[in-house]
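Known limitations

Files may contain more than one protein. Parsers should not assume a single record per file. Below, a two-record file is shown to illustrate correct handling: read the sequence, read the token line, then continue until end of file.
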Amino acid sequence: MTSLIDCPAAGEQDETLATAVPDRDIASAVRVLRMEANALTALAASLDGAFTRALDTLGGIAGRVVVTGMGKSGHVARKIAATLASTGTPAFFVHPGEASHGDLGMIAREDAVIALSNSGETHELSDVIAYTRRFAIPLIGVTRRAGSSLAEQSDVALVLPSAPEACPLGLAPTTSTTMMLALGDALAVALLERRGFTASDFKELHPGGQLGRALLKVTDVMHKGDDMPLCRLHTPLSDVILEMTAKRLGCVGVLDDEGVLVGVITDGDLRRHLKPELLAERADSILSPRPKTIRPKALVVEALREMNEKQITSLFVIEADRPLGVVHIHDCLRAGAA
């Protein structure tokens, strides 16, 4: 029997409990993460020809990819559809319950369906499965049971490896949904690489937010056509000043008779050559040769860096030595490239 002398003081007990609880929490979290990491390792090792056939199916359709699932699998299906759509594979989610009440009409014969069900026996999916069989719509089933109804009815069955759920009760979908989500990412990325999907393509689908701004090209923000300040070698400086004032970019590009950009005149050049007879002279008398330029496919962030390094405020965008436009530092800042 422990004596009162051996018992820890109340403050020491509280401190011990306070230390033990976070330790148990972290141990629980680590257990979950390791179980799910092991499941993903097993999933990677299990991929075989069925995965390739699924890619062939998804890459060969003329329509869109319809992703469906019920409950937690439905939440995963929504994310897979969003990832496919954002990486160049048109896709959308259909709720299986709503499909039985009219939304089957959203699935066309040129489409393919990815159906997610851990058990492979989700009864809400039955109408979707039957619809794909009736109209010969390709069906890819994702399930953990190879002998399930979903796997047997699918044109391609992607069977998840057997792995325990991270939930200590073995009931809450955890490991299984993690594998489904990762498999969806694998399909999306593999399709992306097959199609040669580029950062430029990605930007077209992500025009908003920081990502869209980071992928903006100079052609997206440049001044072009009649908004470009341009003159010829023989243009009187009086007209050059009018052009610079009208276009309000602080510079004028100088072209030769073939339309090649051979120089630039800035407002600084005008100030440096200021004299009474200046207006009577021509553009070729004060132009700065070898103007700073940038290629059309350059990103706005690259143009901003170039202008900061060269301590200039404008760059001409050229192709084959001919100007396509001019980008000003203020254009880059307005686009959020800072």
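...continuing to the second record:
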Amino acid sequence: MLEPLPVTSPALLITQHMPAGFTCSFANRLNKHCQIAVKEAEEGERVLPGHAYIAPGARHMELARSGAKYVIRLHDGPPVNRHRPSVDVLFHSVAKFAGRNAVGVILTGMGNDGAAGLLAMRQAGAWTLGQDEASCVVYGMPREAVALGACNEVVPLAHLRQRMLAQIGTAQALRI
């Protein structure tokens, strides 16, 4: 998903269910293979185009505003849906602070983490995408999102990046 993204891509915030100690090396490895800059997110860091921010293992990541700028907030709150970091925590903050200027994507994974947050994003005007069952290793998280009505589209993995970028262009146009 990330490797072919151009440096002109809007920022991406990524929550993956990984323990502490693994996300930094994961981000560093991705950074070596991508055109965009990929890094483990830091508290208070400004969210910039051409960057992907990975939630640190064992910490929740949220989007927030500081004046006219988006920033990252990290915290050690209790697990949500048995996870920290939790996709729902991130998605609910994106719904609150970015609304229709965001695109949400939920990929393969076990459980229901992210489904309610993706629904909140959709209700706030964001375009939301879910990975289809045929291309998932585990069709848990996307299935729960689809069941809630959280996905505007259900797309095979091979087409998700293209659909995400097309909708990001639309979201950017709405900001003007």
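Parsers that stop after the first record will miss the second one. For reference, the second record is described as follows. The chain has a mean pLDDT of 94.
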